[in-house]
């Protein structure tokens, strides 16, 4: 979806069309920008930017409080449209998803036909604009969906993958940041075609594990499958920031929201998990994961959050770099709580389970994001 939160607000208030609209916290506090209209982006404003800085960049910007429950309800309506065409839907966030339509072609036509139908139905039924990318794998589909925003529709046929990739700058490859760009420039590499022409061993020797990945992506190779929620062996959420973030409190707030989403999905599938893992990608694209195995499996949000917070703090202690991507996942599943397990829960845990249950009911009825936990900075 194109500038999802902001687009929803502009749809509902036509007088905002063509104006720099920002959805997020107040510029008078510690609020951050959750979404910016394309008019606002022309001033250099992006999501996760402090609202106070956004106001300095664009004094006449219109700030709106987010309506998370409302956006979540619209996200469900979008999901309903996607589910018409395939059960293989892998959501990345409220406004983005991968679809595998391989088995849907006999019923609905080839990928481009399905993509256009989805784009048309979102526009007609919801009066919103989606950018769609159609391609043989996840990397290429994501690249295509971002290529011509807003209101984009880009198809990369299998026989023309290299024609599409070769002229692009290497910055279009997942994981290529400033330091990697600099290292490749020293090798005389500016385009994907030039990178593709290098022997893989040279890239691996220069860039390590990332060298192998860049070589594969430059050849249009990405073997990851689209995995629906029910087939997954882990449940995770991650977010990539438009600009790197070095404020610890902001990162904790984002991690807490991601944790709530993961725990809610876990409970909706009537499972417990024993392993918590966080993923942090720094400004130089160094990516680390940190995990901890709990004493016993759980579905309680606070258990996951306290573990994830400690893992994050420890990960940040060893680096002075800002963070580009943050994620959390849970795995090692058990099925839903049995009566014997419930019997040994202490009072505090039962209270947390009750809190989770009430929160789930509210979010199932009014939408993800309707209710959030708060946390207090240790500073």
What does this structure look like?
The structure is a single chain. The chain is α+β, with helices and mostly antiparallel strands and 379 residues long. Helices cover 44% and strands 20% of the residues. The protein is built from 16 helices and 11 strands. Strands 8-11-9-10 form a 4-stranded antiparallel β-sheet, covered by helices on one side. Strands 2-1-3 form a 3-stranded mixed β-sheet. A hairpin with a 2-residue loop joins β4 and β5. α13 runs antiparallel to α14. About 3% of the residues have low confidence.
Per-chain topology:
Elements: H1 4-12, E1 21-24, E2 33-36, H2 38-41, H3 51-57, E3 62-64, H4 68-83, E4 89-93, E5 96-99, H5 105-108, H6 111-126, E6 132-134, H7 138-147, E7 153-155, H8 161-165, H9 178-186, H10 192-196, H11 200-207, H12 209-218, E8 234-245, H13 248-268, E9 271-282, E10 287-298, H14 301-317, E11 323-335, H15 339-343, H16 347-366
Helix pairs in contact: 4-6, 11-12, 13-14
Shape: globular
Q: Quick one: CATH superfamily of the largest domain?
A: DNA polymerase, Y-family, little finger domain
CATH architecture of the largest domain: 2-Layer Sandwich
Strand content: 15-25%
Largest sheet: 4 strands, antiparallel
Number of helices: 16
CATH class of the largest domain: Alpha Beta
Helical/strand content category: alpha+beta
Uncertain spans, ≥5 residues at pLDDT below 50? 336-345
One letter per element, helices H and strands E, the order comes to HEEHHEHEEHHEHEHHHHHEHEEHEHH
**Total domain count:** 4
The total strand number stands at 11
What's the gyration radius in Å?
22 Å
The separation of the N and C termini measures: 37 Å
